[in-house]
Specification:
homodimer, 579 residues, alpha+beta, Butyryl-CoA Dehydrogenase, subunit A, domain 2, 7-stranded mixed sheet, globular, AcylCoA_DH/oxidase_NM_dom_sf (chains A, B)
């Protein structure tokens, strides 16, 4: 069986030694959130998650969810764990006190997201979507809706969903057809069908709050004619008590490759009553408040799967004996090719953790820093990093999900060992909340263009500042990657205006090259920070892993960027029928 | 649902235009095997496989195999298809006429392997292991065993297995403990347990022939003390009729990530009666006759999955509409990043097909060419190519299995669409018959060293001869990759003697770089051959795909080879506990 221990030492190291999380406690909002407090909370949540949630991972995969007579049954133990997690106050840990939250940093909530997702990514989607729904309503809903819904979402009394996708409208959100018709009393009648609705129906929470994208009568076509609505499973009385069942029903649930403990619903809205959230035809903007945070969340899901894969691979490789390695030892960790796989996993996971945590910290700074110019800079980092976190951490989860099976050999393919589940669970992460190709297009066509192209410049400047005095083994490959990335970034920014097909053709390679360069910077910072801990063994492992990353992963950057700059004209000119 | 149409045009193009399969008909052995005959046979088998086997793929995955009261039930339709495939004579198509085969080229048998594996890789394992068992007995068994067993394996009246792995002996075959004790009558008593035995128990064939690795009393430790035995499920009378049930029983079957239609058994040998195959303590050599052919077979399994992934991705992308691409069209095949994924799949699959088919043709030439020096050269190619075919085609199957899901978006993750099965089925291919890391070690420590290192020289010379007059777009990147590969090959050959850890650490990167260079050569040859067909549209697609490969995949070679030449000393020096 796969097992899970929260990597508390690593988490503390990244938060405190690398990213200086103490900066958050200097904000008025988070004066209680000292590094010690955060560490204590993380350790407390970790204990609950390790002991009560991780053991459900294999069985929830095997049993999955059931739909009978319109009612969904979640896997054994989920309802009990939801109650424990809810009652401990973790679901609204970063929400405002006035809405029943604990008002602690978003960064803390994301660290818990990593832990939850390592232990059971399918379960993590229930609180994850609930937080997403909260964020969407908090940003755009009326005070009355906020007053009723937010406290109940923050406490986990109710859970949330986001209802965007329709059969004909996946990546093309603007093709959505679900209709919203004014009832004349301020509410709307919602009719239509939504697919791929995570947590769309279950009985763990008393009510389910659907955040729904729909189209008002006579609205413009495409994304500019979409509005957002809140549609509860049970109608809500003015005092917050529950009324009649609303006209939203689960029609079927999907049988999937993985995340079987997470219910994925086809929902029918048939004369359902809803209330508009935000202004008419502003739905796409409202949705993106939630979607951008959801993309960061999915990045953390990927990070959680990377960690799970890596720690199981290392543990197994330390115990399993086969033959004799060149150094005379029998554990497979001593075989060079097995060790190469483990270093690949370790270098990827730990480097990705810094990317993800730093992005979360910038969310906190963008929201709460007193200095407007710091908030602006932090928001630039969040905007730039969102596609990188989402795409890199999830592609890495699939890569590492495959590698952990490889380390286990044939045993990895047997369900009983529990690691093949990682690859199956991880693959969805590359698809939902915008496929990783959509992330790459967001990076190339939006993030590189925003504010006259200033976003990547913040990254280049930060890395250059840190390159000063870097040891050659880390600094030289990082500097080379950065130079190439800077030049290619200018090429993409210019080419996108004149020849978007060329710029778009290489967008995934560009995105990966950017993320690898970012991780190269993370490894330089980790190697330096580890040196200062005074723990020589820890510092040595970090240095060796940093050098592995610099030599063997950063080295991919020039070829990836070379791909980006090739013309795609002949390829795009081929007839679809001749492929 | 995923669907399958055999790519007959591609197969004919590779066999006839690229590899000149007519050379086989010039051999005395295969004078009937003209290109037209081969094409006709392939088309005939393809019709049967498309119509009768492919439709079983999804259902055999969903239902899997059942073990009840010691009896295995295979998925619905398998027994009927086995009978059809057997009665049409396909199982022994390349076996000698004297043993009931059709004596057609091994190359033809492997083309059929590709078709079978695209249609249903789980089913393909039953005839595949039967052919493997035939090959092992043909190479090493006594005439009496051959007389009894071979005709029944060639016709598919009986099926075969290879019983190698034990719980403590996976990659380390020499740790096998199964005992063989002389009975005094020329037979042996076999006792022990074997795991991961594909097709180890079922009732599609009248008897199952187990080819078993076991240890004689007082044999030397390790691989030098292993011998091989034939152990039938039912004892066999001298006239070939079946006698009593032998002492081999299925103890349990595995629940796996994929290939659910293939039964994977834990077998107990308890006072089973067996007969030695070949000389005592020569088991590992006997096993490798079968194992090397099995590795090529697994490469073809990977090719089959690559083809299945590619053709489904292209079909879906032609039909599915989302948004508007830059060129104004709506089909997702017109979106640059989707097209990039399709080109990646097409360039990989078609390039891999030439590698696999060429290897199969060299098997035929090594066996049957009248000129000893041609046979020797052909065997060198087979030896060199075996790890490349096995590892590259199976890694590619996983990569493309992931990409086809990505092309389908969220729908790809739903079982109903049938493409997530490809990734699950494909992953085993990287593990069995020697993990891909074992292949890389075979390449580095054996194949580069054989005959004073002459094997790779044959490849370098052949590519150089073809580079003459190559168009720049294809020739320049291939020439650069080849130069780097040649230099790194010399480095590996020298380093392996003095510092095997350094040479071994990069073995997988070296293997991939070698295979990519091989595929670069294949694409040069395909582009040229397509030009000569006179079909301008076909030639254009081939040229564009060749250029895609040259620019975007061959470009990985220098970085991969750079990795190979880095020292691994600091990494190998890390304590296992500090990883």
């Amino acid at each position: 069986m796969a097992s899970y221990q929260a990597p508390l030492r690593e988490i503390d190291f990244v938060l405190n030694d690398v990213l200086k999380v103490g900066r958050l406690a200097e904000l008025a909002e988070f004066s209680d959130a000292t590094p010690d407090t955060l560490s204590g909370l993380i350790a407390e949540a970790a204990k609950l998650i390790e002991e009560k949630l991780a053991p459900l991972n294999a069985v929830s995969d095997a049993k999955g969810c059931k739909l009978e007579n319109g009612e969904v049954t979640v896997p054994d133990g989920f309802t009990e764990f939801w109650a424990m997690y809810r009652d401990a106050g973790w679901i609204g840990i970063s929400q405002k006190k006035e809405y029943g939250g604990a008002n602690l940093p978003y960064t803390l909530a994301k660290v818990l997201e990593e832990l939850l997702c390592s232990a059971n990514v399918a379960f993590a989607l229930y609180p994850g979507l609930t937080q997403g729904c909260f964020e969407a309503l908090e940003a755009s809903a009326s005070d009355e809706i906020k007053r009723i819904y937010l406290p109940r979402l923050a406490t986990g009394e109710w859970s949330g969903t986001m209802c965007i996708t329709e059969p004909q409208a996946g990546s093309d959100v603007g093709a959505a057809k679900t209709r919203a018709t004014p009832n004349g009393d301020g509410s709307y009648r919602i009719d239509g069908g939504k697919i791929f609705i995570t947590s769309g129906e279950h009985r763990m929470a008393d009510n389910i709050v659907h955040f729904v994208l729909a189209r008002l009568p006579d609205s413009p076509p495409g994304v500019k004619g979409l509005s957002t609505f809140v549609v509860p499973k049970y109608l809500v009385n003015p005092d917050g008590s529950l009324g009649a069942r609303n006209g939203v029903r689960v029609q079927s649930i999907e049988h999937k490759m993985g995340i079987n403990g997470s219910v994925t619903c086809v929902l029918n809205f048939d004369n359902a009553q809803g209330w508009i959230v935000g202004a008419p035809n502003q739905g796409i903007q409202n949705m993106f408040v939630m979607m951008n945070l959801a993309r960061i969340m999915v990045g953390f899901q990927g990070l959680g799967q990377c960690e799970l894969a890596t720690q199981n691979a290392i543990r197994y490789a330390r115990e399993r004996k086969q033959g004799k390695a060149f150094n005379g030892k029998s554990e497979i960790i001593e075989h060079p090719d097995v060790r190469r796989m483990l270093l690949q996993m370790k270098a990827t996971t730990e480097g990705a953790r810094v990317l993800a945590y730093e992005t979360a910290m910038y969310v906190d700074l963008a929201r709460h820093h007193p200095d407007a110019s710091v908030r602006e800079a932090a928001q630039d980092w969040v905007d730039l990093n969102t596609p990188l976190v989402k795409a890199f951490c999830t592609d890495a989860a699939v890569e590492l999900g495959s590698l952990v099976i490889q380390v286990y050999g044939g045993h990895g393919y047997i369900k009983e060992h529990g690691v093949e589940q990682i690859l199956r669970d991880a693959k969805i992460l590359c698809l939902y909340e915008g496929t990783n190709g959509i992330q790459a297009m967001d990076l190339v066509r939006r993030k590189l263009m925003l504010h006259n192209g200033r976003l990547p410049g913040r990254f280049f400047a930060a890395v250059k500042a840190d390159l000063d005095g870097a040891p050659d083994a880390l600094g030289a490959p990082l500097s080379a990657a950065l130079d190439a990335l800077e030049r290619t970034t200018r090429w993409v920014q210019e080419t996108y205006k004149s020849n978007p097909e060329d710029a778009a053709f290489g967008c995934c390679d560009y995105q990966r090259a950017f993320a690898l360069t970012y991780l190269g910077w993370n490894w330089l910072r980790m190697a330096r920070a580890a040196e200062k801990t005074g723990d020589a063994a820890f510092a040595k492992t970090k240095r060796v892993t940093a050098e592995y990353f610099a030599t063997r992963l950063l080295s991919q950057v020039p070829a990836l960027l070379g791909n980006v700059r090739e013309s795609a004209a002949s390829i795009m000119a081929l007839d679809a029928s001749s492929l």
